[in-house]
Amino acid sequence: MKDRTVSALALFATLQAAFSDVHPYCDQVLQDGQDACDKSKPGAVGRKACARHVASYAIGQLGVAVAVTRVLGARVSWPGLLAGTAINAVTHYAIDRREPLKKFLLSDRARKLHLVGGGKAGYLAHATAQRRPGVVDESGPGTALAECDQAVHRLIGVFASLVATWLAVRGSRQR
Questions:
Q1: pTM as predicted
Q2: What gap in Å lies between CA 123 and CA 117, rounded to an integer?
Q3: Which residues on neighbouring strands pair with residue 135, listed in sequence order?
Q4: Closest CA to 91 of 48, 34, 49, 149
């Protein structure tokens, strides 16, 4: 294997580990509690809460990616790091607003393209949570939608790592 290939694979693995492993912390622990409750609400309240959450998420992911690559001596271009972070951030916003994710999971087109397995409507309706009498939560922790949310975030993280690596490797070839 060529040295450039080995370097690219190592960088991809490093970025993937950083993006993936810091994801739960940035998504759950770093997130403001009120934003967590409000981010899927309709209207300006939901949009603003989700934007604040995504901002803290993106800053956390970028900070860890920069720290890890710098400590390990990797030279990653800012365009690469910012592109990977932006992919995670923009898609994170859409997923956390909930309705776009539900539409994707329930769409015939996604199923026909084999992006989603069949039967998600039943799964989403079945795996809900009742946190207090008379209130059924369809999207919070422990629900099918929350599990699908995490799965899609992690899949997108692979793509974000790939794009960041490709930009970094491409940039080093042009020097």
A1: 0.87
A2: 11
A3: 132
A4: 149
- Which of 142, 143, 154, 43 lies closest to 95 in space, CA to CA? 154
Pairwise CA distance, residues 49 & 38, whole Å: 6
CA distance 63 to 74: 15
Per-residue pLDDT reduced to its tens digit, 107-132: 888 888 888 887 788 888 888 888 88
Which 3-state string (H, E, C) describes 137-175?
Answer: ECCCCCCHHHHHHHHHHHHHHHHHHHHHHHHHHHHHHCC
Of 38, 80, 30, the residue nearest 60 (C-alpha): 30
Closest CA to 108 of 100, 98, 116: 116
The answer to whether the CB of 165 falls within 8 A of the CB of 15 is yes
Task: Write out pLDDT tens, residues 1-47.
Answer: 788 899 999 999 999 999 999 999 999 999 999 999 899 899 999 99
Taking phi over 0 as left and psi of -120 to 50 as alpha, with beta for the rest, 159 belongs to: alpha
